[in-house]
Amino acid sequence: MIKSRASITLTELAEILGGKLKGENITINDIAGIDDVEPGEITWVEDHKTLDKALESWASALIASDNVYEKFREKISIPCITVQKPRVAFAKTLGVFYERHLPDRSISESAKIGKNVTLGDNVSIGEYAIICDNCVLGDNVTIFPHVYIGDGVTIGKGSIIYPFASVYDHCVLGEEVMLHSGTVIGADGFGFVEDSGTRYKIPQVGKVIIGNRVEIGANVTIDRATTGATTVGDGTKIDNLIMIGHNNHIGKNCVFVSQSGVAGSCEIGDNVTVAAQAGIAPHIKIGSNTVVAGRGGVTHDIPENMIVSGFPAKPHHEALRLNGALQRLPSLIKTIRDMEARIKQLEEHAGAVQQV
Q: What is the predicted pLDDT for the residue at 355?
């Protein structure tokens, strides 16, 4: 990202954010978090704790929710833009000051372009990139250096492919897709069949179809289907270091956090969150609006609108109770051992009394 704007007045910024300015219409030159904000910059707060910290910082202005401002307006001594969602406003303000650094709209002489390739307007292809035969690249597609695009790939307009990413044959990327470095789309699904102690590879003849506005982080692998297609719905965001197996069907606006993984042939609904290091077994169905907590292990179907955690994954409140019981297990074991010792003493004492 590069700095694209030197300054802006708070009145202009409030209009962009759909907020209201409370206080003086000063000019700011950047936005930063509370811990590193400098004079002349604006920061954002979500509650009274972050507000106190921000007011002790060097910030020249604030972004805050309407509720926080109304509740603590007497202590706020610097200009403030009030909005409904400060975190969203923070993201939008970063977009006011910074833009993604993209190369010139040109095709490098060192790039290799195959036969029957269709290029839209303003396509950029970097040094030593390889575009194989029969590809279609839409308008304003950016291919960074050392990218490999296989035969028959389609890439929608406005998509960005960063260095050393690979898109294998016949895969489809929608509009405004972003692939970060090291990601591989369309490698073979992990399909083998055993016969007399030998594993034979099942040809993987399907493809991967990525929807619009999908962002895929660095070193992600999304495998092609055995037959048909592995699909990822519009608006889904995939963090770094994630594995998505063959023949999965992932809905819209899902979130996959780093080091999570999905085995093959799963169906995942819309707005599903799979947190860090969570794993999903093959042939699982997960309903829309469900959250799989960090390190959760899903081994059975999960209905919609659930929060699950633990292994095997279960409703989160049940997992918390089970974990609480496990934490008490050492003391319970000690109690049982003490009781056993006490019972043994009582038995010995009772035997001695009987002998008398």
A: 67
CB of 101 within 8 A of CB of 1? yes
Q: Residue 12: what pLDDT?
A: 97
**In this structure, are residues 237 and 273 in contact, taking their beta carbons and an 8 Å threshold?**
no
Residue 293 and residue 289: Cα distance in Å, rounded? 13
**Among this protein's residues, is 246 annotated catalytic?**
yes
| Model pLDDT, residue 340 | 86
* pLDDT tens-digit map of 301-352: 999 999 999 999 999 888 778 777 778 888 888 888 889 888 888 877 777 7
Q: 3-state class of 279 per DSSP?
A: strand
Strands 249-250 vs 267-268: parallel, antiparallel or unpaired: parallel
Instruction: Calculate helix-pair angle for 86-97, 10-17, nearest 10 degrees.
Output: 120
Q: Which amino acid is at 1?
A: M
Per the CB < 8 A criterion, the answer to whether 315 and 302 are in contact is no
Contact call for residues 136 and 159 (beta carbons, < 8 A): no
Of 230, 147, 151, 139, nearest to 176 by C-alpha is 139
Q: How far apart are CA 90 and CA 226, in angstroms?
A: 43
- Lookup result for tokens 């977009």: 95
C-alpha to C-alpha distance for 83 and 136, rounded to whole angstroms:
42
What is the number of alpha carbons within 13 Å of residue 276 lying toward its C-beta? Answer: 2
The Cα 303–Cα 264 span in angstroms is 19
What pTM was estimated for this model as a whole? 0.88
- Asked whether the bond before 103 is cis by omega within 30 degrees of 0, the reply is no
Find where tokens 């009145």 sit.
Answer: 11
Per-residue model confidence (pLDDT) at position 333: 86
Domains in the chain (CATH in brackets) are 2-99 (3.40.1390.10), 165-312 (2.160.10.10)
* C-alpha to C-alpha distance for 291 and 55, rounded to whole angstroms: 35
Catalytic residue among 170, 246, 317, 349: 246
Residues in the chain with pLDDT values less than 70: 353-356
pLDDT at 356: 59
> ∠53-56-59 over CA atoms, to 5°?
95
Q: How many CA atoms lie within 13 A of 88 on its CB side?
A: 10
Tell me which residue has tokens 């790939």. 153
